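hey
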């Protein structure tokens, strides 16, 4: 709401202006501050944990994570490394909250794949896996290009990569059926 009131050169500093100019009562400013921190920290700790779990379960050999003590030790190391890297990234970005929410929206690309898998619409075979992997890579590259170009500022543009992912999943599934297998890929 404040972005419409402030001048064009102040649009990136709306939260700072809100607190610096004392436009609201102290108790309301405190509430806003706590809510912004809670939203940000909730997203950050969840994403850090998911990143750590993904790295440990998919990229670290099973011998290193087979017992709970070793898993916890490696988790702590990966979490600290992830926080340090994200801290370094945060120092170079002016609006970290906007960056984090845009970066995490990359996960929307996986939405159609999760839905298709959950309902059993994907047949597990080599060709389907190849199309899905290619689809994720292409959609991720499109997303990264849009993110770097500033095209994700408009919320409608955030929908473009998931729609491409959905269409890619459908096409890949049918191509898998038509080209490589004579069994239905979607049932």
């Amino acid at each position: 709401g404040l972005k419409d009131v402030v001048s064009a050169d102040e649009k990136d500093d709306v939260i700072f202006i809100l607190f610096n100019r004392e436009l609201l009562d102290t108790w309301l400013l405190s509430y806003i501050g706590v809510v912004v921190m809670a939203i940000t920290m909730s997203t950050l700790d969840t994403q850090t944990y998911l990143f750590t779990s993904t790295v440990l379960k998919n990229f670290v050999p099973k011998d290193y994570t087979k017992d709970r003590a070793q898993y916890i030790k490696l988790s702590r190391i990966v979490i600290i490394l992830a926080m340090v890297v994200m801290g370094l990234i945060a120092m170079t970005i002016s609006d970290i909250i906007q960056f984090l929410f845009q970066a995490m929206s990359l996960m929307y690309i996986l939405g159609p794949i999760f839905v298709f898998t959950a309902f059993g619409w994907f047949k597990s075979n080599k060709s389907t896996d190849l199309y899905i992997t290619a689809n994720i890579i292409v959609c991720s590259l499109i997303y990264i290009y849009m993110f770097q170009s500033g095209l994700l500022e408009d919320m409608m543009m955030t929908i473009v990569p998931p729609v491409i992912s959905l269409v890619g999943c459908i096409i890949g599934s049918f191509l898998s059926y038509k080209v490589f297998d004579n069994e239905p890929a979607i049932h």
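The mean pLDDT is 75. Helices lie at 14-20, 26-58, 62-65, 68-92, 96-104, 111-118, 126-149, 160-180.
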